[in-house]
Design a protein that fits this description.
By secondary structure, the chain is mostly beta strands. It is built from no helices and 16 strands. Helix content is 0%, strand content 72%. The chain has a 16-stranded antiparallel sheet, with no helix packed on it.
Length: 287
């Protein structure tokens, strides 16, 4: 891959080469190995990056599914950096309708030049999904997530900030009839954020989204949703509408174009430090 871009900081080119191989070790077990080498040329200096990744996926006849992907990246340039990344998920079929889902993601970026930790990410999540086999009109997902996020030092700052979030969410969709689908999302985020020199500040934020999808034909849907975002400590509440026109080329894919009249995201983990108001496109898949 070769890429060239013009930015305010000047021209930048990226050249990349990589390889990937997957093996089916036995029935239900696959192993993946991948490597990548990239070079970035910019006015601020040249940077080279290399990465090596391995993945394992196991599907047991009992209904247990496990997958992991582990990666190490090395970067040399103005600074030397090393990054470790692991992504893990396990799904356990409790019965034909209920599935227990566990996720763990961890990332650590180390500044080798100054022997410091530049960034850290630790996400642990457990959820329960309800997807009835005989009647697919109602689907639901309840989830709890603990997220630790130490971000890199921003320009103009001397130290990084660390946030610890406890997020509980509930989502469901209910097919009221052949033409109308009701989708709901409720989320609550308790977050403590601070730095080495500043005490942590705790905030409580709630998000409510109510959406209705109306079938205009066999392949066209119109979605309208109302969002409410409330922050207790600031005694602040924002609300607004979103509308979306969707095309369903198949049973498992939905492509949408819409406009968000609100300034905040539907992501319960977002800091909402910038506005997301405006046009958007979305591609959804289901299985």
């Amino acid at each position: 891959q070769w890429e060239r871009s013009d930015t305010e900081q000047g021209n930048r080119t990226i050249s990349l080469v990589g390889a990937q191989r997957q093996w089916d070790l036995t029935k239900g077990v696959t192993f993946l190995l991948a490597g990548e080498e990239a070079n970035l040329h910019a006015a601020s200096g040249d940077t080279s990056r290399s990465s090596l990744a391995a993945g394992l996926s196991v599907l047991h006849p009992s209904g247990v599914k496990f997958s992991t992907r582990d990666e190490i990246r090395h970067e040399t340039g103005a600074l030397k950096r090393e990054q470790y990344l692991t992504v893990n998920q396990v799904d356990v079929k409790l019965d034909p309708d209920f599935t227990l889902i566990g996720k763990y993601r961890y990332s650590l970026t180390r500044d080798l030049t100054h022997d410091t930790i530049e960034a850290k990410f630790d996400e642990r999540s457990i959820g329960l999904a309800y997807r009835p086999v005989e009647n697919d009109r109602f689907n639901a997902l309840a989830r709890y997530t603990r997220l630790l996020d130490q971000r890199p030092v921003s320009p103009g700052q001397t130290e990084s900030t660390t946030g610890l979030s406890h997020v509980t969410s509930l989502e469901w969709s209910f097919q009221l009839n052949r033409s109308v689908e009701w989708v709901e999302k409720l989320a609550y985020n308790i977050k403590a954020e601070g730095s080495d020199s500043m005490p942590a500040v705790t905030t409580h934020t709630s998000l409510i989204i109510t959406r209705f999808n109306l079938a205009l034909g066999k392949v066209i849907d119109l979605g309208t949703e109302y969002r409410v975002l409330a922050q207790r400590e600031a005694n602040d509440q924002r609300a607004g509408w979103l509308t979306e026109l969707m095309w369903k080329p198949s049973k498992f894919i939905r492509f949408g174009v819409g406009y968000n009249f609100t300034g905040f995201s539907d992501n319960e983990f977002s800091n909402n430090k910038y506005s997301v108001r405006g046009w958007f496109i979305r591609l959804q898949g289901k299985y």
